[in-house]
Design a protein that fits this description.
heterodimer; A: 459 residues; four-stranded antiparallel β-sheet; B: 170 residues; alpha+beta; 5 helices
Chain lengths: 459, 170
């Protein structure tokens, strides 16, 4: 019924040519805010009607095929590639059953704004995503994206994006985000990036390199060459920096890597080992863990450098930490009770309280960007990804394998990525699962992967 | 829980041979790290390792490695024997420094294991210091679970990987 509401709200809008606007004005923002008071997490994703929603995504035609530096070489070929990216985003999400441009007839440019609904009804499509690609005089590209309800013969949403040729995939991700948001009522997440550790080599001499990629695995890039073991990266909220652990001079230390300049700096000048770095949501602070004489505590330092503040002082191992989205609280891991468990404290280190009382051990907590859930590694025999609310209630498992660990949230808090280790071989892979626990899949990475860290949606 | 069974099993397999400490952990030399000097045949000419070298260290001490139980970092009686032999060697070569590498098995999370490996290496260091070794001669580094020695995913491999290894420097 949520869908019906969206249909009515969108109404019938006639279709002038798109102006070169970064974002069109349809009320997608109100739809995106709706789920905040929906109650139980996962309910929206769990509705079966979405599973069978047929979405047709034909190739995006162009007004005139012009050479472009973007993939395909000209705007006509590019239009097919854009539609493919939209198709793959929506298909891999697991909620929809899209049909892509390689299985569908071409549409003519004028039909983008005036679909032949009868044809699509004949193909049993319920939703239709059309769009176009146009080369601008300044070398940039305009990509239009339209979502139609085929049964009602009406437009649900549309947006236009102006991008540089090398950023053409971002336009496709924005289009997929628009469709996903409009149909699910959730916030977008496709136009985002992931930092992770690329792994190669045998178990006892594993090469671990810092690498980055788009949320769909494209634009993959190795950042470090693997001579020094790199671990546990985290993208800064604005994607300008990556904080990570490196054994660069033989000892584990946290470095802040500047993506633009390629320069990196130590997060603190202390000679003690530092590890498990995390950003605050506003990017102003970095949490890190530091061991002194065998005792590990959590510290906070301005991300621009400066004086560190110690937040925990238990004689046990206090490690990790993840801010609540408003920055007021931190969930972290401590073995002060005798085994790894989850604790929540205020951002200044006060009011430390254990929240995990569900048996087994609990590690690597990560606060959802929505604030309503904490994902963590549950250790009880096997290692499984689980979620709980911030008070330790409603714990449930999302995965069931031999060793799944280190969850990271999609920007909209609906999907959790983690890494899975194979028993025996030690081979690792990045996986993701949605909050229903049903839609689980392995990400395609050029080599093995671990320690995924998902960044926010790009502006 | 089956840790204790495992320990008992390992101990049962180990025949004491009248060594000063019953030492289950040293016996099978690691492939690749075997030194040729386990039983030096009383040479007329010094053909053994260079005094004060890493090879000399390995040949002189009970073991370069102490092992730990799951999630533990305490130095038990057999570990003490090993570390005492390391301390005597260090007393003989006061110019030498060491690095103690702390390791964990794969059945832990990455961040935590770095902290735990650090704790293990420090436990070994603290015991050496209690035996009179100058702390400035001892550095520690934790590799967490990133550098396993035994490659299996079984209790025996994990027991071997939970370790603190002493390496000489200079």
């Amino acid at each position: 019924m949520k869908m019906r509401f969206l249909v009515l709200a969108a109404g019938l809008v006639s279709m002038p040519a798109l102006v070169a606007a970064q974002q069109a004005t349809l009320p997608s923002s109100t739809a995106a805010q709706a789920p905040a008071d929906e109650g139980l997490t996962g309910s929206v994703s769990d509705e079966n009607e979405w599973q069978d929603l047929g979405i047709a995504i034909p190739s995006f035609p162009t007004n005139a095929s012009v050479a472009t530096a973007a993939e395909g070489g000209n705007t006509e070929a590019l239009g097919r590639n854009v539609a493919r990216v939209v198709f793959n985003d929506l298909r891999n999400n697991g909620l929809f059953k899209p049909v892509g441009p390689d299985q569908l007839p071409e549409v003519a440019f004028p039909q983008v704004a005036a679909p032949t609904f009868d044809t699509w009804r004949g193909r049993s499509a319920e939703m239709l995503v059309q769009g176009f690609v146009k080369a601008n005089d300044d070398g940039r590209l305009t990509v239009g994206c339209y979502l139609y309800d085929v049964a009602l013969g009406s437009e649900l949403a549309r947006q236009g994006y102006v991008v540089k040729p090398e950023e053409w995939r971002r336009a496709a991700h924005k289009c997929a985000d628009m469709v996903y948001s409009r149909l699910s009522g959730e916030s977008p997440f496709f136009d985002s990036k992931i930092a992770y550790i690329a792994e190669t080599g045998p178990k006892d001499r594993r090469r671990k390199q810092l690498a980055i990629m788009d949320s769909d695995g494209a634009n993959h890039r190795f950042i470090t060459n693997g001579q020094a073991t790199a671990l546990t990266p985290r993208y800064s909220p604005d994607y300008s920096r990556i904080v990570y652990l490196s054994y660069l001079n033989g000892a584990p230390r946290i470095y802040v890597y500047n993506v633009g300049t390629g320069q990196q700096t130590l997060v603190t000048s202390s000679t003690n080992p530092t590890f498990a770095p995390r950003w605050s949501p506003d990017g102003k602070w970095i949490l890190y863990s530091m061991a002194m004489a065998g005792n590990t505590d959590i510290y906070r330092v301005p991300s621009t450098g400066g004086q560190s503040t110690r937040l925990t002082d238990s004689p046990g191992i206090d490690v990790g930490g993840s801010y609540s989205p408003d920055g007021s609280k931190i969930v972290f891991e401590s073995d002060r009770s005798g085994s790894q468990q989850l604790y929540v404290m205020d951002a200044d280190g006060s009011n430390q309280k254990r929240i995990s009382f569900f048996g087994g051990r609990a590690a690597t907590p990560e606060w959802s960007p929505r604030g309503d859930q904490i994902a963590f590694t549950h250790i009880g025999g096997n290692f499984r990804i689980a979620v709980t609310d911030p008070y330790g209630k409603g714990m449930r498992f999302l995965t069931d394998s031999w060793q799944d660990e280190a969850p990271t949230w999609s920007p909209n808090g609906r999907i959790v990525q983690f890494f899975r280790t194979e028993r025996g071989s030690g081979k690792t892979g990045i996986w993701q699962v949605d909050l229903t626990g049903r839609n689980e899949r392995k990400l395609n990475t050029p080599v093995d992967g671990s320690d995924p860290a998902w960044g926010p949606v790009l502006p | 829980m089956n840790r204790s069974i495992l320990i008992a099993g390992v101990a049962a397999v180990t025949l004491g041979l009248g060594a000063c400490a019953s030492k289950p952990k040293q016996l099978p030399p690691e492939p690749g790290t075997t030194t040729t000097t386990q039983t030096a045949p009383q040479p007329t000419q010094p053909t053994g390792p260079v005094p004060g070298s890493q090879a000399d260290f390995v040949a002189s001490v009970i073991s370069d490695t102490v092992n730990f139980d799951t999630d533990r970092y305490n130095i038990d009686a057999s570990d003490q024997g090993i570390l005492q032999s390391q301390a005597s060697w260090l007393a003989r070569y006061p110019a030498k420094s060491i690095t103690i590498e702390g390791h964990c098995d794969e059945r832990g999370t990455r961040d935590y294991n770095i902290a735990l490996g650090e704790r293990r290496a420090n436990a070994a260091k603290n015991y050496l210091v209690s035996l009179g070794v100058d702390p400035s001669r001892v550095t520690v580094v934790s590799y967490g679970k990133e550098r396993p020695l035994a490659l299996g995913s079984d209790e025996d491999s994990w027991a071997r990987n939970r370790r603190a290894v002493t390496v000489t420097v200079n």
